[in-house]
Every structure is written in structure tokens, then in C-alpha cells.
User: Fold these one by one.
Assistant:
Number 1:
Amino acid sequence: MKLTGYFIRRRISALSKDAALRPHNYCSLSDAKSILLLFQSEDEKLIDVCVSKLKDKNIKVIVCLYSKIPVCSESRDDSYFVIDMNDNLNMFYYPDEATNRHFSALQADMLIDLTHNDCYAMQYLLLQHPCRFKVGIQGCFPIYDMEFSASKDIDISHIFDQMLFYLQIIRSK
């Protein structure tokens, strides 16, 4: 039984204040050796397209998929990490300790969040991830180093292409 998301939203709000104070280390797409991509199961059909665009640039890609329904993960390799809402979250929508540890241990130079604004478990996890450059779609909390505005009807593939375009023209240093 899952209760309200009130408590995790409050915790995200507190963590986002700390995120605004952390040092920002900008990273261009050419400087990134590995990228952690966050998706939701509703957008699963777009994952392969996004991953192939990054792999064409010789970037290691790790995909973290948030799912509200059980996902068949036998066809996925080790670069896919699935967070199941029913198995990996407690009744207050907080990820369990094992999921939190595993997610924080994923090594990435850049984190790209393509989850929707109401995916609080993923926002909670990304705020605690040690990655130094985080990119995402603007939401309620200021949690990203680079934010992109999007309408309510988000076209993930278009937003992802825009992210790649701007990440390519960033010059770090």
C-alpha cells in the first residue's frame, strides 16, 4: 500500500535547496565519457533511439528506468537499471536502501533526467547522486545544472535532441 507523496516532496524540496548551493561543474557532451539517462516506462519505446544517438558519439550509456508496472528485464544488459515502484519503493515512495546504494554507485560524468515532473522517487535519487553535472526538464524544484522548459505534453525525443544540441555547443573551462 502506497501512501501520499507528501513526505517525499518535502524531502526533495529540502534536498533541492542544498543542490542549489553545491559547486556546479559544467561538462560538454564531448567531455562526457559516460552518461546516466533517467526514463519512465511510459517513454520506454524512445530509450533505444536516445541511447543509440549517444553511443554513436562513443559515450558509455547507463539507463535507469522507473516503472509503475513490472518490466521484463531479461532482454536488458547490465547497462539497464530498473526501479520498480512496487518492489523498490516503500509506502512513502522513498527508494529502499539497496536501490539508493546501487543508484549512487553508478558512475557517470553527466546525468540526463527525462522523467516527468511527478516522478518523485527519481528526483530524490538524482539529488543524492554524486554526478557533478545534471541536466533535466524544468519542474517544481531547482535541481539541475542545466534545465530545459517543456510544455505539459512533453515530446521526450524533441527535448532530448535539444539537450544534445546545447550540450554539444557548451565549452567547459
Note: The CA atoms of residues 116 and 154 lie 8 Å apart.
Number 2:
Amino acid sequence: MWHKGELFDISRDVWQSFSSKQLLKNEGVLEIEDLLAMQWFYCHLSSNFVVMLAVDLRVGYQLASDMLNTPVEGISGEDEQDAMIELMNCICGRLDRDHPANDCFELPRLLQPMEISLLLNKLHRLSDVTASIEEQWFYISLFEAEAAAKMDGSV
């Protein structure tokens, strides 16, 4: 089973492989309004686990800027989403699975606003980490996938 330290360490290592900005663990508590205002990405890690990542939009633009070596002003919304999906893909690729990676692993996807609160209310959270990048939120959480499968018909 994963623990907060492992989830944070992997997230930080992957983030810092792409960006010069520091990802710092933050013990702050995010209010539901904060969570709903963030941009969310979702990935089935395996048949049993789902990973969700939420960031302030500015975090995504900073990551895309660092990855593409382009000023933030030159980053498109598509560039930002691609960068965040790549980050999520790399994080999920480093997390241990309960069976081989080619079984049930899906590419991460951006969640629509209506999906977020539904998923957060239905999924059973196993581990989560709140962090920040220059005072911008970064939140990642591991959930049991069974509830997600019932909601979206997958797995």
C-alpha cells in the first residue's frame, strides 16, 4: 500500500525532472471551493487504483513553459494540458501497481468540472498529498478504483 511520503516523493521527483521550480510539501488544508477551482486530471493506475491530480492553472502553464523552454506568455492551453498529462503519466508510471502496467493502465485525462465533485464524493481516498509551487496548489490523491468503475463503466 502507498503512503503519503512515497506519493509525495514520486510527485516531487517527476515534477523537478521537468521544472526548476521547487515542489514543497504543504500541510495546509484545501477547502472544497479551492478543490473545485483547480484543474483536475484522472488516471486509472490499475484495475484497483485511480490517481487524481489537481493544480492551479498557473502551475500547468509554468510546467509547460519549463518543458518547452518557452516564456509562459507563449504557452497555449493545449500546451498546458499536454504538459500536465505528461506529468501525470510519468507519476503514474513510477507508482507500483498490483499487476503489469499494460493491464488497465490508461492515459491520464482532463476532468470536466461536473465530474470532479461527483468523483470526490464517491471515491475512497487511500492517500493524498497537498503541496505547493511558489504558493500555487498541487494536490495528488490515490483512490480505490472500484467506486470509479461503477461511475464510469470502466475496469
Note: The CA atoms of residues 65 and 73 lie 9 Å apart.
